[in-house]
Design goal:
By secondary structure, the protein is an alpha/beta fold. The chain has two domains: 217 residues, Rossmann fold (3-Layer(aba) Sandwich), CATH 3.40.50; 40 residues, no CATH class. The strands form three sheets. It has a six-stranded mixed β-sheet, sandwiched between helices. A four-stranded antiparallel β-sheet has the order 2-1-4-5, covered by helices on one side. It has a three-stranded antiparallel β-sheet with strand order 12-11-13, with helices on one face. Strand 4 and strand 5 form a beta hairpin. Helix 4 runs antiparallel to helix 5. The chain is globular. The structure holds adenosine-5'-diphosphate. Adenosine-5'-diphosphate binds next to helix 1.
């Protein structure tokens, strides 16, 4: 089987400004891929191109083996999408939202009812099937969005900041759903601002800044590239970081310092690497 998602030299220009610039990467079937980047990096625009909501200005995109521009219908049939904006209809009931989506995808009965029941049960919303969506909590709404995105049995799921604004327990619950779907064979691309979410869920990580991919790999690869040991120096209001290939090298550096005040050694994590690469602290 070919790549689940493949971008080759993709650009998107708005008002003569490239907001996605020469982006190339591949996601293999069965991967959970995390796209990270500060606000304005181009993550949402990338997801919008991958999900056929907007066309690239140049470059090639294939999703589930189909061209995202010339075969957008086939792409739509093979992907599930949970975006911030494409929210569920709050004036309809849970079941009506599912029913509407099932009809849009031409899933006929009795299969449609079977799948609605199956996915509502999977995300734990069976008891809420007749509730109006506006009465649901944020976590329930997000689970409904996921159930709806799964109704037409996609191969690839796109999740744009799936756990933003949710309490820690609800986030954990969604993480378990994401991992379980992946175990069942689903390829997943997610964007997030939460480093621990990426560390917990993602097989590989792409970091974007200014429309470009500035780093790509597993967490272990990123740590090896940038340094697994860190010396942190506390200055009045801020912290200074110095990366070392490993903890021993960081400790050696510390020992050699005549003044060790405010100095500390620890293993590097994804947030350290992110800040080092983008120069931004996340909001
Ligand atoms: P991210 O999701 O990483 O925060 P976005 O893809 O939303 O980044 O935005 C990248 C840049 O593209 C931003 O500077 C944003 O203002 C700009 N942008 C996004 N969509 C449009 C649009 N429809 N028209 C003009 N500029 C846009």
């Amino acid at each position: 089987m070919g790549a689940a998602v493949d971008l080759q030299k993709v650009c998107k220009v708005y008002n003569k400004i490239p907001v996605v610039n020469d982006l190339s990467f591949t996601i293999e079937p069965g991967e959970i891929f995390g796209l990270l980047g500060p606000n304005g990096a181009g993550k949402s625009t990338t997801i919008r191109m991958l999900t056929t909501l907007t066309r690239p200005s140049s470059g090639e995109i294939s999703v589930a083996g189909y061209d995202a521009v010339r075969q957008s219908l086939q792409v739509k049939n093979h992907i599930g999408v949970v975006l911030q904006q494409t929210s569920v209809d709050i004036d309809l009931s849970v079941w009506e939202n599912m029913e509407f989506h099932g009809r849009l995808h031409h899933i006929s009965n009795p299969q449609r009812q079977h799948r609605i029941n199956q996915w509502l049960d999977y995300v734990g919303l069976t008891e809420k099937r007749d509730a109006l969506v506006k009465t649901l909590s944020g976590g329930m709404k997000r689970r409904l969005q996921i159930a709806r995105a799964l109704l037409h049995q996609p191969d690839i799921l796109f999740l744009d900041e799936p756990t933003v604004g949710l309490d820690p327990q609800t986030r954990r619950r969604l993480w378990e759903i994401i991992l379980d779907l992946n175990k069942q064979g689903m390829t997943i691309l997610l964007t997030t601002h939460y480093m621990e979410e990426v560390e917990y869920l993602c097989d590989r990580i792409g970091i974007m800044d200014g429309g470009k991919l500035i780093s790509l790999g597993t967490l272990q690869q990123l740590r090896q590239q940038h340094g697994e040991g860190l010396v942190v120096k506390q200055k009045e209001e801020s912290w200074e970081y110095k990366f070392f290939p490993n903890l021993e090298a960081a400790n050696l550096y510390l020992e050699q310092q005549p003044d060790k005040t405010g100095l500390m050694v620890r293993p590097s994590n994804l947030e350290d690497i992110f800040v080092e690469l983008t120069g931004h602290q996340l909001d």
